[in-house]
C-alpha cells in the first residue's frame, strides 16, 4: 500500500501537466468554437463546417496527407530494411535523423532557394536541356518538401521493427520454398506492421495540420486544415470558426490514432510467446 501511495504521489506532476497543457487547451478550443464574431453563443460555426467549402477543404487535407504518408512509406520501408543489413546501421540511422533536428522554418527557406528560378534545381534542368521550370508553388514542391521533412519519423519506427525481427523466421520461410516476395508479404511485413502504423501516426497526423510549408512552398495553392485555422485566427480574426476547425482536426487525429493503434498479440516479432 505504501509503494502504491508513493507511485500516486510521483504521478501528481504528470497529472498537473496533462491538465494544464492538454485538457485545458482543448477545453478552451471547444469553448471558443461556440461563439461567433460578435461573441454570441451559437452553433453556426459547426453548421458552416459542413458546408461544401469546408468539406472540400477537409477532403483536400486528407488527400495531401495521404500522399505525403504514402510516399514516405514507399521510401522509408526499403531504406529502413537496407539500414538493418548495413554494418554501421546506427551511424547511418543517426545521419538520417540529424536533419530532423534542424528548425522547420530554416529547412523550408532552404528549399525556396533550391527550387527557385535561379536555384540549383532549375540550373540542373537547364543543363540537361529541359529548361527552367516553375517548381515552387506547385503540388510537387509541397509533397516533396513534406516528405523530406517527415521521412525520418517514418524510418525510425520501421527500422526498430525490422531490427527486432528474428532472422530465423525468414530462413524458415525460404526453407519452406517461399520466394523473396512471398516472404516479405507473409512474414516480414505482417510482423513489422506496428512499426508502419507508428510511422503513419507520426506523419499523417501532423501532415493534416501543415501551414508553414503550404504558405512558403506551395504559395497557398495547397490549403489544409492547418492553413484554414491560421487564416481564421490571424487574418479574419474569427476565433470561433478557427476553433471549430481545430475541434474537428482533433477528432480526426483521435480517429486516426484509434485506427492505427497497436493491438497486442499472443506472439512477438522475435518468435517468443508471452
From TrEMBL:
It is found in: Cell membrane. One of its GO terms (cellular component) is plasma membrane. Residues 58-260 form the ABC transmembrane type-1 domain. The chain crosses the membrane at residues 12-34, 62-84, 91-115, 135-159, 199-218, 238-259. InterPro entries: MetI-like (IPR000515), MetI-like_sf (IPR035906). The keyword Transport applies. GO terms for biological process: transmembrane transport. Keywords: Cell membrane, Membrane, Transmembrane, Transmembrane helix, Transport. It is a multi-pass membrane protein. The keyword Transport applies. Belongs to the binding-protein-dependent transport system permease family. CysTW subfamily. This is Spermidine/putrescine transport system permease protein PotB.
